Structure formats: structure tokens, C-alpha cells
Amino acid sequence: MSRRLEGKNAVVTGSSRGIGRAIALALALEGAKVVVNGSGTGPQGPGTDLESLNDVVNEIESKGGTATASCGSVADFAYAGRLVRTCVDCYGRIDILVNCAGVADVGTILDVPLEAWHRAIDIHLNGTFNCCRHAVPLMAQQKSGRIINTGSHAFLGQYGGNAYPAAKGGIISLTKAMAVDLKGSGITCNAFCPGAKTRLSTGADYQERIRTLHAKGALTKESMEIALNPPDAAYLAPLVVYLASDESAHIDGQVFSASGGYIGLFLEPSEVMLGYKDPETQGLWTLDEIAKCMPAK
Questions:
Q1: Radius of gyration over alpha carbons of the chain, in Å?
Q2: 208: closest CA among 108, 121, 115?
Q3: Closest CA to 36 of 66, 15, 17, 65
Q4: Is residue 222 part of a domain?
Q5: Residue 209 domain-assigned?
Q6: In this structure, are residues 71 and 39 in contact, taking their beta carbons and an 8 Å threshold?
Q7: Catalytic residue positions, numbered
Q8: For the chain, N or C: smaller number of CB within 10 Å?
Q9: Helix, strand, coil percentages for the chain (3-state, nearest 5)
């Protein structure tokens, strides 16, 4: 390893397993001291997430790194503050914040339970905001910092569900807005859309959803095959490490993708004029005029 992050301190939310875990390990191997976080309740019930967190800490320490575990939900604004403070109290400051905490989507607009909607928004979008809101003022005081938020290709609306795509789209918009807010501060804010095998991208329900979307024409055969056979999360961690490094100071407000050996960049969406009328001389649009401007079937 190049130890590019020597002397840096990081918080990685949702790092008890999956993508967050892979990122926490990669940051530590590059020299960063890491606070790893989990909600406290894993797939097998209360306490299992804490066990997984301790496993991550032990693995990092066995490889010569430094890590601390913090258990709690980033959806809780007060806890998010304590999480960030843990990094400062243990290591002196916070240089890197990687927001990875998340939950799976449940249902469609036809049947999604209200509680499931709120849970996904609270953990993904509000959790990202909560941690950023506490970390950014500290980074601003030191005039440096790296924030990397986790989006998803789901924000394009192609992978089904409602709350998950909505939350991920919100995270991407928040990332871009924060980059504008923080321009010139020494803090950068970027996002990435991962493709990796995790507990959210495996199982019978997930596979059925992907195959159903392909049958509806929402996913190509190639996209379906990739979604059904995602690569290991370790492959995307180097991109996040780079975005956390000093070398990425010129990269801000961008949305990347990473899966296996692939790294991509989402270009800015562009607006295309469909038509124009001078409002002062030509008046309101008629519905027939609008119909003529619309894309062909």
C-alpha cells in the first residue's frame, strides 16, 4: 500500500459489512485511522451488528491499522453528532466522512408501507445529511475535508422500488448542493454509485425484482446479468480511497460509478429546448402546440 492517507482520520457509516466494510478496510490499509459504524441490529437480530463492527476493528488492527467502533443509527441526528465527535475525541480531528449506511427498499408505489418509506429516507438521505451537518463545520474550521456519499444507479428509476431511488436521488442532489456551498473551503463533496455483492443485492426477493424489471423492459439482458451477479465490494474501494486523498482536491460535486473493474462518471444532465414562444407577442401555449413539441412515440 502507498499509505496515501497517513495522518488522516475517517468516519465510515454502515461499515459493519458490505460496501462500508470494504471501504473502511481500504482506508485503514492506506494509513487512515477509522471510526466504523453500524446500527446495532444486524440481519440476525439485536447485537449482531456490534459483533460485525468488532470483527472489522479486529481485522484492521490485525493488519497494523487503527480503528474504533461506534454503534448507533445515523438517522438519529444527536447520535450522528456523537459519531463525528468520536473521531475527533479519539484521533484529534475528522478528515474524511464516507456515508454508506443504508437499508433495502420494500414494495412499490402500489403497496409500499409508510413506515418502510420513512425508514429508507431517514437512514439513507437524512442519515447522510445528519453526519454531514455535524462534520462540515469541523472540516471548515481546519479548511480541509473529504466527503464521499453513496448514491445508486437506482436514482435513474430503473431498479424498482420507491423509497430507495428517491433517497439516492436526494443524496446525489445534496452532494452537488454541498459542493456549491463549500466551494473554496478546502472541502470536497462527491458521490459514487456502487455495484457490488451485498446483503441488499442478494437473495430470492432481490433476484425476482431484477428479473421482473427485465421482463418489463426496464433493464437490458446485460444489465440484468450484471445485477444478478455483482462483483465483490473490494473492487470499488480504491475509487473511494482516491476521492478521500489529497490528490483528489480538484474533484468536487461529481457522481461516479464503480463495479468490478469498471469506473465511470455521470455527466451533468442537459436540458433540450422543445419549443419557444415569445410570451409578450405570442401569448400562452395551446395544447395543440405543446403536442407538436413532444417527443414522438
A1: 21
A2: 108
A3: 15
A4: no
A5: no
A6: yes
A7: 164
A8: C
A9: 45, 15, 35
96: nearest Cα among 28, 34, 147: 147
Query: E strands, the chain, where?
Result: 9-12, 33-38, 41-42, 45-46, 67-71, 96-99, 145-150, 187-195, 255-259, 262-265
Cα atoms in the Cβ-side hemisphere of radius 13 Å centred on 224: 15
* Other C-beta atoms lying within 10 Å of the C-beta of residue 199: 12
188 falls within a domain: yes
pLDDT at 222: 60
In which residue ranges of the chain is pLDDT below 70? 1, 41-48, 159-160, 196-210, 212-214, 216-220, 222-231
Which residue carries 468536487 as its cell?
252
> For residue 287, what pLDDT is reported?
97
Residue 118: give its domain's CATH number. Answer: 3.40.50.720
Q: Which domain holds residue 254?
A: 9-201+232-293
**219 domain-assigned:** no
Mutual orientation of helices 221-228 and 204-216 as an angle, nearest 10°? 170
How many domains does the chain divide into? 1
**31/117 Cα distance (integer angstroms):** 38
- pLDDT value of residue 296: 87
